[in-house]
Design goal:
The complex is a heterodimer of chains A (about 400) and B (about 290). Chain A has about 400 residues and is α/β, with parallel strands linked by helices. Chain A folds into two domains: about 230 residues, 3-Layer(aba) Sandwich (Rossmann fold); about 150 residues, 3-Layer(aba) Sandwich (Rossmann fold). Chain A has a seven-stranded mixed sheet, with helices on both faces. In chain A, strands 2-1-3-4-5 form a five-stranded parallel sheet, with helices on both faces. A three-stranded antiparallel sheet of chain A has the order 11-12-13, covered by helices on one side. In chain A, helix 2 packs across helix 11 and helix 6 packs across helix 7. Chain B has about 290 residues and is an all-alpha fold. In chain B, strands 1-2 form a two-stranded antiparallel sheet. In chain B, helix 1 crosses helix 9 and helix 1 packs antiparallel against helix 10. The chains are: A alpha/beta (about 400), B mainly alpha (about 290). Chains A and B meet through strand 7, helix 8 and helix 9 of A and helix 1, helix 9 and helix 10 of B.
Chain lengths: ~400, ~290
């Protein structure tokens, strides 16, 4: 009897295992048959509309991406408070890129393979946005970068990549026109961080526009993000005769630019230094503004605490309430990106028609300014904010649109 | 033509100044290697400590930063002696791998202690003579560079006199030439190790002061690249050769500035190692190295 029971038990176990293997084998194709990306969400009744987000929440890029992510989350919260999109709640699924391109791609791949998100937003660095958008595009998912400003990106990932921020050619043109105009610069020394894509492109666009204005580029010099002294760059600067009227210092981040400016100032050069939106970070004036006066930079917006702009004022107040810190431009970019994506979904019948929805955004008032995606443009038309560091404080010079923008 | 000569002269002066800091760093490194035969990758951290000691005394006292060489040099001698006693003596002769890992460990300890005490923000001080330049024909050279070149020459002369005219110096040289022979002659070689390490660290500390005074920025992590270049210089000059360290330092300083001027600043680190490779191919013992090195 005992043997019989054991045999029955053994047969039961074997059948159970065969059953498990059989059903797992059956479920696998079913799971794989769920279409990924944009095809998985159209008009899904009852459910939440989900947007993926990849931001670097640690490492060197966190200075831009944490505020961007917080701004994006605030936008989602506000949309849901107002009833969601077409009555459906919006959810943001965030993956941490850890300032590491492999982790960024892994985050995008995970979101794409989940089959739950039709659109992914995020990132402020074009070196990361490009592979991230390519990974998303291979799963037919749209990628909207909130802060990667390379105007080449949409051509590098056709159809599937949008910018929710200005392009580097636009901000470089504004910088060059301001240098040649109000700053009366005739001669310039360009110094850029040559191991990064963003500062290299920015310096190139600045040079193109400055030469276009019949001014002189006296010397183009380079440094690396890992450099710990800049004496040879200062030596090169000292060989220029006459001394340049302005230095265009194109750096990935303010942390990279600040020591170079300090060393230039220590060598006795007092002319204006100009840079791009990489300078704009919450750490801009921390540690004192020692030796960094007379610095200009282009950026996305200026959140003036005394602003009379109601939209900006409300955003700053809610951001402060939510995160107990002041809003910075990259926070506004994250916020506007979600709002633009939501607007595009509203404009279209379904997330499947996302490009049509984007093309229909002909005028959107965001917290970082007005923008439009007229025609088939994947880069918004947007004004550029020019700031200055003077006596250890930030001064808003104004918002500008360039007369002429270099081609990407 | 005159313009080109002016620019070349300007670049030569900047190269000489950069070379002075490399010379002090590499001379200390070479002295330590010559006597103890140890590989100390943490040598750049002594330079970094020199910059912070100068910075701190400058902020506290407001003294002329050049005077603060009198503080950074002896303090770093003491730090060097302590480092040798605590970290290197116990593992001396146990293998190069141990020396390398100990020196890597020291790098992290020094960097973290400095970051804890002074934060990891870039720091800078300004020379009181920063606005003074001396005209040499059409060449404008900051006064600071003349002072730095002068101080380096004085330190090297002092080191030469110490090594050749004092009994301690002769004992160090004897230990460097033949450790066992020196022991047989009654020289306390462990004492010589300690003293040599202290002098080497002190020279790096002096280089740190000159680094800071010249207006260069510094943070707790700035020592690694100068240390690697220091090694490149002593290999170029010849291991254990003080003259080699001086010539190697000047070659690297000048080459860096000429390369930076012609190809851009991003190339200045690469050129040190291009020269190193060329020297190793043409004369593997270095410019001043003997057959046995």
């Amino acid at each position: 009897m005992k043997n019989l029971n054991e045999n029955i038990l053994a047969v039961f176990v074997v059948f159970t295992m065969i059953g498990v293997i059989f059903f797992s084998g059956c479920t696998s194709p079913v799971k794989n048959s769920i279409p990924s990306g944009v095809n998985s969400l159209p008009n899904s009744s009852n459910e939440t509309i989900r947007i993926g987000a990849v931001y670097n929440l640690e490492g060197s890029e966190a200075t831009f991406d944490i505020p961007s992510m917080q701004g994006a989350k605030l936008a989602v919260k506000e949309i849901n408070e107002q009833g969601g999109i077409h009555g459906k709640p919006l959810e943001l699924i965030v993956k941490d890129g850890k300032s590491n391109t492999s982790a960024v791609i892994a985050g995008v791949t995970e979101l794409a393979e989940s089959g739950r998100v039709p659109i992914i937003i995020g990132l402020s660095n074009p070196d990361q946005a490009l592979p991230a958008a390519k990974a998303a595009a291979s799963a037919k998912i749209y990628f909207v970068t909130s802060g990667a400003t390379s105007p080449r990106l949409p051509d590098q990932v056709p159809e599937y990549l949008y910018l929710a921020c200005m392009g580097d050619n636009t901000q470089a043109a504004v910088g060059a026109e301001y240098a040649a105009g109000p700053l009366h610069a005739e001669n310039i020394y360009i110094l850029y961080e040559s191991d990064k894509q963003y500062p290299t492109l920015l310096a190139g666009y600045f040079k193109t526009r400055f030469l276009d204005l019949n001014r002189t580029v006296q010397k183009i010099d380079t440094f690396h993000s890992t450099d710990t002294n800049f004496s040879s760059q200062v030596a090169n600067l000292s060989t220029l005769s006459p001394s340049p009227d302005i230095i265009f210092l194109s750096a990935e981040t303010w942390a990279d630019a600040k020591p170079v400016i300090q060393e230039i100032r220590n060598a006795g050069f007092t002319m204006p230094v100009m840079g791009g939106d990489g300078y704009d970070s919450p750490a801009l004036l921390t540690g004192g503004a020692n030796g960094v006066d007379n610095v200009f930079y282009t950026t996305h917006t200026w959140f003036n605490p005394l602003s009379t702009n109601e939209k900006q004022h409300n955003f700053m107040a809610r951001y402060m309430e939510e995160y107990n810190s002041s809003a910075v431009p990259f926070a506004g970019l994250g916020y506007d990106t979600v709002m633009v994506v939501a607007e595009a979904i509203r404009n279209s019948d379904s997330p499947l028609a996302f490009p049509d929805g984007m093309a229909n955004i002909t005028f959107y008032t965001g917290v970082t300014g007005n923008l439009s995606y007229s025609g088939n443009n994947h880069i918004p038309v947007k004004s550029v904010t020019l700031m200055m560091i003077q006596n250890g404080t930030l001064v808003h010079i104004g918002d500008f649109e360039p007369v002429k923008v270099p081609t990407p | 033509m005159e313009g080109i000569i002016t620019i070349i002269s300007q670049v030569v002066f900047w190269g000489l100044y950069a070379g002075c800091i490399y010379i002090l760093l590499a001379t200390g490194l070479n002295l330590i290697f010559g006597v103890m035969k140890i590989v100390n990758f943490a040598h750049g951290e002594f330079l970094m400590l020199g910059t912070y000691i100068t910075f701190s005394f400058f902020v506290l006292s407001g003294f002329n930063p050049y005077v603060l060489l009198c503080a950074s040099l002896p303090i770093l001698v003491v730090v060097g002696i302590i480092t040798e006693r605590l970290c290197f003596r116990p593992i001396l002769g146990t293998g190069k791998l141990n020396e390398i890992f100990v020196s890597l460990g020291i790098i992290y300890v020094f960097q973290n202690v400095v970051a804890m005490l002074w934060t990891d923000e870039w720091k800078t001080i300004q020379s009181p003579y920063k606005d003074i330049t001396i005209s040499w024909g059409s060449v404008q050279v900051p006064l600071d560079y003349f002072i730095i070149i002068g101080i380096t020459i004085c330190i090297l002369i002092g080191l030469y006199l110490f090594l050749h005219r004092t009994s301690l110096g002769r004992a160090i040289r004897a230990t460097s030439q033949n450790r066992k022979g020196a022991m047989l002659m009654g020289i306390n070689v462990e004492q010589m190790d300690m003293l040599t390490f202290g002098i080497g660290a002190g020279l790096a500390g002096a280089a740190g002061t000159l680094w800071a005074v010249s207006g260069q920025v510094f943070n707790p992590y700035m020592g690694s690249i100068p240390a690697i270049k220091g090694f490149a210089i002593i290999i170029i000059g010849g291991l254990g050769s003080i003259a080699g360290a001086i010539v190697g330092g000047l070659i690297i300083g000048l080459a860096e500035n000429f390369t930076s001027f012609t190809l851009g600043g991003a190339w200045k680190d690469a050129v040190s190692f291009i020269i190193l490779i060329i020297v190793l191919i043409v004369k593997p013992t270095g410019l001043f190295g003997g057959k046995d090195e």
